[in-house]
Amino acid sequence: MWVLLISLGLWDKDDLVFHSHANNQFCTSFFTKPMEWMHIPLGLISGKLFCPKCHYRLGSFHMAGIQCSCGSWVSPGYQLHQKKVRWTLAKLQ
Ligand SMILES: [Zn+2]
After folding, report:
1. What is the biggest distance separating any 2 CA atoms in the chain, rounded to whole angstroms?
2. 53 φψ region: left (φ > 0), alpha (ψ -120 to 50), beta (else)
3. What pLDDT sits at residue 25?
4. For 64-91, how does the pLDDT look when each residue is reduced to its tens digit (9 = 90+)?
5. pLDDT by residue (tens digit) across 46-62?
6. Which is more confidently placed, 43 or 1?
7. N or C: which end of the chain has fewer CB within 10 A?
8. How far does the centroid of ligand 1 lie from the alpha carbon of residue 22, in Å?
9. Ligand 1 centroid vs 75 CA: distance in angstroms?
10. Separation of 28 CA from ligand 1 center, angstroms?
């Protein structure tokens, strides 16, 4: 589904939000800018993120922030699970 998002221009590597790794732990997710296709209703504090095409669950978001597996907090956090997209990112580099 990530190839689809990228090919449709719905997501790009530039949309990644980088964070400093708190304790050198492996990050099992990464963070992105809020995207139009997420269709997050105004005022919603937290929820899940789904692929707009296949409705596969990609991750979740929280306005107050989400803690990465490495210990860092990203606020607001739009978190996507890395294992589902790692190969796609590798192709973009
Ligand atoms: Zn991290």
Report:
1. 36
2. alpha
3. 75
4. 999 998 899 999 999 988 766 655 555 5
5. 999 988 877 878 899 99
6. 43
7. C
8. 7
9. 13
10. 7
Q: Rounded CA gap, 49 and 39, in Å?
A: 9
Rg, the chain, Cα only: 13
Residue with tokens 């990530």: 2
Q: How many domains does the chain have?
A: 1
- Residue where the block lists tokens 């590798």: 90
Of 36, 19, 33, nearest in space to 71 by CA: 19
> Residue 31's domain spans which residues?
2-92
Confidence of residue 9 (pLDDT cuts 50, 70, 90): confident
pLDDT at 4 over 80: no
CA of 92 to the centre of ligand 1 (A): 20
Site of tokens 């991750």: 59
- Helices and strands (H, E) in the chain, number of each type: 2, 7
